[in-house]
Design goal:
The protein is mainly alpha-helical. The chain is built from 17 helices and no strands. The N terminus is likely disordered. It holds the Pfam family MFS_2. This is MFS transporter. InterPro entries: MFS_2, MFS_trans_sf. Keywords: Membrane, Transmembrane, Transmembrane helix.
Length: about 475
Amino acid sequence: MSTDARPERASVRLSARTIVNYAIGSLGTGGYSTLPGLVLTYFLTDNLGVAALAAGIIVTTAKVWDVVIDPLIGAASDRQLARTGSRRGFMVIGAVTLPVFFALTFAVPPSWGPVASAICVLLAFLGTATAFSLFQVPYVALPAELTRSYDERTRLLGWRVVVLTAAILLFGAGGPMLRRATGDPVTGYLLMGIVAGVAIGVGMLIAARTADAAAQAVSTQLAPSPDLRTQYLSGFRALRRSLPFRALLGTFLLQALATGTMLAGAQYVATWVLRDEAAVEVLFVALVGPALIATPAWTVIANRIGKERSFLAASILFLVASATITFAVWAPGPWIYASVAVAGIAYAGLQSLPMAMLPDVISHDERTTGPGQAGTFTGIWTAGETIGFALGATAVALMLAATGYVSSVAGASTVQPDAAVAGIVLSFSILPAVLMALSLIPLARYSLRRHDIDELTSRSFEE
């Protein structure tokens, strides 16, 4: 890029159209992150009769596949940007193919038997995961290329998280409602998969348009693209050389694990603790309603005291809120919704703040290594996020297996032992609280502050 292009990108306020188009992409990311995490393990154990441990292995295997391919997709996305001037191609492919694989994931009938059903779900979900990664990895790279402004990134990612939070509510409450709409679990899950898959794909397609705006800002400053293997490995080299990236990724991975355990356990809490399968919708309203209001507030707080301090405050608030749910082991009841609502306020910050900090990390690294590597960073980032959520579902499955949870097929009635119900509560409360506490250790090592980013911007003006 010419020497005056960087200052321009730093000083210009992002247009409302760019922000809206980018934010709508979270309709896709929110849907994909919410519905499988919420209902897939439950679909396997309570609809297809798959044992809890086997269900956990299926979900984990698909997510491990993400961890393998995400850095590769990140490197390929950087190559595509250098070659074509845009990351849009991969995003469109993911948007078009995901609805098909998503619907197939929930199209497996119980009549096929647990083994055949488990294999088919695994293959379909692998396809879904691949399609999502094709979109998500370049999508997360775009903010670092759209603007260099510390506050504009907070603004951009803040609105993205508003849509993400609304999407969590839409899919978290609407998905189970669609599942019950037909009165039959088999056709209900199929309807849910089709409608949700299409909605996710549409959100992705709209967001893909933002890639062209980002490309206009960076395409002329890119160095020649190295070979794929070199660029694939560069993501891991970035992890080694950047302390802020390691600290932020370690924090986010542990927090994804914490929120993943709550997400995977929510349907079990509704069914076996609150004794109402439909209560999962109320749990999501309790979580997401406050988060919708809180997201703009976290943006204001971050502008005043800094993103890293705001992130710490949100983490501690989530820790306390989730820990209080432990009392449901002895006294379950509707009071759980209040604790979930407080966690929802914190959750808004846990989503928006690290995503606004990641572009700062990428820009900081650009000063020494040069531009054009945002995809390598976001490939590693998405892999870390994915493995966190995957292990969250695995942790719940292991807890269910260890406490004697009884799986069943659709329409069959069963009774769970007291130990299994206690395990469900613990996986929804004390386990995420402990993981959140552990995440504070790497967060304490995050060193970038506002003045570091402002200094980078001022140097860009001088150049």
